[in-house]
Fold this sequence. Notes:
- This protein has 5 helices and 9 strands, in the order E-H-H-E-E-E-E-E-E-H-E-E-H-H.
- With 136 residues, it is an alpha+beta fold.
Amino acid sequence: MRRTSLDAKQRRLGDVPAFAGSTPAELARLGQVLDVVTVPAGTVILRRDRLGHEFHVVLDGTVRVERDGNTLATLTRGSVLGELALLDRTARNADVIAETPVVLATGMRRDFPALLEEFPALARQIRDTYASRVTV
């Protein structure tokens, strides 16, 4: 995995819908708690049945969500990954695999509640995604 410099990180974070419109101070805060990493195509980002300790926001690239070899979804820029396990405090319910090289903003469980409070657009996106997944 390759890490990104702080200035480049803040620019990348400001480009995704969940953080669009953030002030420079807010982007600096995000830069403190989120790591930006690049993973190669084929990397398993999240594994089913493992406990969740982190979440990711796709900054660039495409990931495939699958269970038992069946593709459930293909996600791109702006998608949040791994949040359900943090919200429910349960194991991951699917594997997530990088289809292309993927740039991710990665945060830890300990920072997740504060980020939801500080960034209402992120909280809204996660709430809407959660609602659609649990009602399907």
